[in-house]
Automatic annotation (TrEMBL):
Signal peptide: none annotated. Pfam families: CLP_protease (PF00574). One of its GO terms (molecular function) is ATP-dependent peptidase activity. One of its GO terms (biological process) is protein quality control for misfolded or incompletely synthesized proteins. This is ATP-dependent Clp protease proteolytic subunit. It comes from Nymphaea colorata. One of its GO terms (cellular component) is endopeptidase Clp complex.
């Protein structure tokens, strides 16, 4: 249980730092499942931009 708590604290700290939100807000938000549409993830601070399908190129082997 201690390790899980330590990992959760670390995760909360990283997400708070990356999103600019408080640790308290992140802790509240991860207490329940939360799913984001692409724009919502950007608005929340988890993503920088939406990559369009035509902009993605894969090399076939």
């Amino acid at each position: 249980a201690k390790e899980l708590d330590a990992n959760t604290d670390y995760y909360v700290e990283l997400v708070a730092k990356g999103t600019g939100k408080s640790k308290e807000e992140i802790t509240k938000d991860i207490r329940r499942p939360k799913y984001f549409l692409a724009q919502e993830a950007i608005d929340y601070g988890l993503a920088d931009k939406i990559i369009e399908e035509q902009d993605v190129h894969f090399e076939r082997k």
